[in-house]
Write a structure and sequence with these properties.
globular, 4-stranded parallel sheet, Rossmann fold
Length: 164
């Protein structure tokens, strides 16, 4: 079975994109290897995102905030899919990705900006996680190996409006 490299992008690479990376990598289908990056990485992973990633049994040593430049060079893993998860990253001029990966925007509100106590913040992070998980499950259910790039693009973009 082919595995697909999926890069989740957000501005600071501290919350939503980290959750995407962990969810894709731990998806039971085994179809994906998740990566994440940011245009201006914040340098650390949000503790609520880290908590959820660890609950998924995602390795703690992989939880780090990184620049998208790391994935644009010739030695970077070739990406099959690139998904922006915050509106800022969707509007930025991205690097030219080697191999012409399929792209889409799956926007989610920034859970780190939710006011309130830790319980309110945890709920916001969990909501984003559930929404991302649902879209990744739907992506995994597609016959990706039988779809051409244009069809993959259309399906990936359809998922941007999926109920979360």
């Amino acid at each position: 079975m082919k595995t697909y490299n999926v890069l989740f992008l957000c501005t600071h690479n501290s919350a939503r994109s980290i959750l995407g990376e962990a969810l894709a990598s731990t998806d039971p289908s085994g179809k994906f290897i998740g990566f994440s990056a940011g245009s201006t990485p914040g340098g650390k992973v949000n503790p609520f995102a880290a908590e959820l990633a660890l609950e998924m049994n995602y390795p703690a040593d992989k939880l780090r905030s990184k620049s998208w430049d790391e994935f644009a060079g010739p030695d970077a893993p070739a990406m099959d899919f690139i998904i922006t998860v915050c509106d800022n990253a969707a509007g930025e001029v991205c690097p030219v990705w080697p191999g012409k990966p399929v792209t889409a925007h799956w926007g989610f509100p920034d859970p780190s900006q939710v006011p309130g106590d830790d319980n309110a913040k945890r709920r916001a992070f969990r909501e984003v996680m559930v929404g991302l998980k649902r879209r990744i499950e739907l992506l995994a259910a597609l016959p990706l190996d039988r779809l051409d790039a244009l069809s993959q693009q259309a399906e990936l973009r359809k998922l941007s409006g999926s109920a979360s």
